[in-house]
Amino acid sequence: MTTSHKAKQTRLSAGRDAEATKAQILDAAEQEFAIAGLTAARTEAIAAQTGVTKTMIYYYFKDKEALYQEVINRALINPLNQIAQLQLEKQPPSQALEQFARFFLQQMSQRPNIASMLFLEAIQNQGKYYPKASIEQLYGMLTKILADGIAQGVFRSLEPRHTAVNIVGTCVFYLAAHENIKHLWKGKRMLSKAMLEEHAEEAINFIKAGVLLNQ
């Protein structure tokens, strides 16, 4: 192996290590922000979870606010890009709505910290760090499906934006409030696969009953 090839391999390995470290920091930060929000989150706690120093965290992220913004972006942008790839605009509105809700529920269930983190963002920061592009993408897709369904006589007459907000709320409230509502299901693990699947089916049936014209 030549010296230049060894140097290239070293750079590639370092790049992979850096990306792995950043991902580890983001995962730990997501947990911390979901519990404390931006205001009370401690960088020391994030460092303790990852085994890296605060200095290393600030090497990758300028400050706590920059880290928080990156966590929010990652939490929203990746799932929404995947939903966009479903090309729901090519499907009948009722099918598109169910697929949107099912996929969104699946994404949120896989990372339940996101719902708590977004609620805290609204309470603590009044949406300052919530990426505008993501909210436009999320609610834009959903209101388009609803508007098409109304125009085609599939959905009842409704206000698409309010309905979109209600649909998203139906999907995420269970996750954000599971520590409060766990008393309704004593002895059950609220975030178990079985309970999340049960919630998803009930949520989808509730959404369909609320918007379908001939339900």
Helical content, roughly? over 70%
Largest sheet: none
Shape: globular
Question: Poorly predicted ranges (pLDDT <50, ≥5 residues)?
Answer: 4-14
Strand content: under 5%
Number of strands: 0
Gyration radius, to the nearest Å?
21 Å
How many domains, as an integer?
A: 1
Q: Please, how many helices?
A: 10
Can you tell me the CATH class?
Mainly Alpha
How far apart are the first and last residues' alpha carbons, in Å? 69 Å
| CATH architecture verdict | Orthogonal Bundle
Structural category: mainly alpha
Order of helices and strands: HHHHHHHHHH
Mean pLDDT across the residues is: 89
Q: Do you know the CATH topology?
A: Tetracycline Repressor, domain 2
CATH superfamily: Tetracycline Repressor, domain 2
Give structural notes.
The chain has 215 residues and is mainly alpha-helical. It has one domain: Tetracycline Repressor, domain 2 (Orthogonal Bundle), CATH 1.10.357.10. The protein contains ten helices and no strands. It is globular and about 60 Å long.
Topology, element by element:
Elements: H1 3-40, H2 43-50, H3 54-60, H4 64-84, H5 93-110, H6 113-125, H7 132-151, H8 160-176, H9 178-181, H10 193-211
How do you describe this structure in short?
The protein has helices at residues 3-40, 43-50, 54-60, 64-84, 93-110, 113-125, 132-151, 160-176, 178-181, 193-211.
